[in-house]
Amino acid sequence: MAALPTFSSACSLPRSLPVPPARSRRSGFRCGSIFGDNEDYYVDEPESAGDGFFFSGGKYSDGPSRSDEWFAQGKMVKAYPVYGGKGKAKDPVFGLTLGAGSQSEADLFRWFCVEAGSSLNPKVILVHGFPSQAYSYRKVLPVLSEDHHAIAFDWLGFGFSDKPQPRYGFDYTLDAAEYVSALGSLVDVLVPDKFSLVVQGYFSPVVLKYASCHQEKLTDLVLINPPLMENHVKLPSSLALFSNFLLGLIISQDPLSASDRALTSCGPYMMKEEDAMVYRRPYLTSGSSGFALNALSGAMKKELKAYVEAMRTTLASETWKTRTTICWGMRDRWLKYDGVEEFCKASNHKLVELAMAGHHVQEDSGEELGRIISQIISKRK
């Protein structure tokens, strides 16, 4: 692939969710969960039905929601070029043209970013796991903002960032031609100088691939429950099911499966309804989120083993000079702790155990994790 140009533009959007006024009214469109839940749900019909897919999993209220409040805290940043240009994106099952919210921009993708703290302070970028959102760091950001400039973003395909459809500008592969390069393009926009990098879960191998090529930019790397050992190379069944072409396409369109169940099945996390609605929102308003989840889970199912092995090799190599800390939620139901402590000792990496946290440590122990990260990146070599 040819070298990517450097982009440094940010677009200003209204401080509310990007739903046209004509579509903001409550519709009478009722949906039931595909898993047979007893309760019906409401969705905004003009947005959801426009993609021709079935949605379930939550209620919209007429007043302000936690989603609106979270969106108002962030901004949209443009980075990474849109390749392809094959016309309007269509769904992979019926060939229907997707709604405006599922279409990519003509030039650069839009990423949703939330910042906290003075821009004069040392910078730290927070990278969420799979499947999740920048919202997962909502308890970490205020803690880090006291002494740092913290930035959390939604990956392409998640949260409020663009969700390009496979074969229409982005294919959700883990290789250097897509997610790794996309991360590099965004970082160049957000932080021109040195920074610390924090990443949680299954996106860790992707971030480490980027970091291995840019160690000169990093002051610290913090990995939170990364797939690190040989028994971590397969996705858990609750995530692997999204990769199935037909069944996966159906299940990935259900917000209860794509958000609630995925986040709560991997540890002790008990999700509040107002938080659940933030995670459900992308799946309720457009089919593009489900299609992206299906594509990425398929790519991870195929490529995760090679990336985990490469990550282990990199972290154990003498050429790896970046100070690295691994934080581990001991109640992780997806990734076993066996061998993690021995690997950290052999590779001379610091290990921090969080006894009460599961896979999504920032959800279970957000404030505690924020203090740990702050202490780690505040220390000087």
Distinctive features:
AB_hydrolase_fold; hydrolase activity; (wild Malaysian banana) hypothetical protein; 381 residues; hydrolase; 13 helices; Rossmann fold; alpha/beta; nine-stranded mixed β-sheet; Haloalkane_dehalogenase
| Alpha-carbon Rg, integer | 20 Å
**Structural category:** alpha/beta
Q: How big a fraction of the residues is strand? A: 15-25%
Poorly predicted spans: 1-60
CATH superfamily: Alpha/Beta hydrolase fold, catalytic domain
* Secondary-structure element order, N to C: EEEHHEEEHEHEHEHHHHHEHEHH
CATH topology title: Rossmann fold
How do the strands line up in the largest sheet? 1-4-5-7-6-8-9-10-11
What is the annotated CATH architecture?
3-Layer(aba) Sandwich
Cα-to-Cα separation, first versus last residue = 36 Å
- What's the number of extended β-strand segments? 11
GO molecular function, one term: hydrolase activity
InterPro entries: AB_hydrolase_1, AB_hydrolase_fold, Haloalkane_dehalogenase
Organism: Musa acuminata subsp. malaccensis (Wild banana)
Pfam families: Abhydrolase_1 (PF00561)
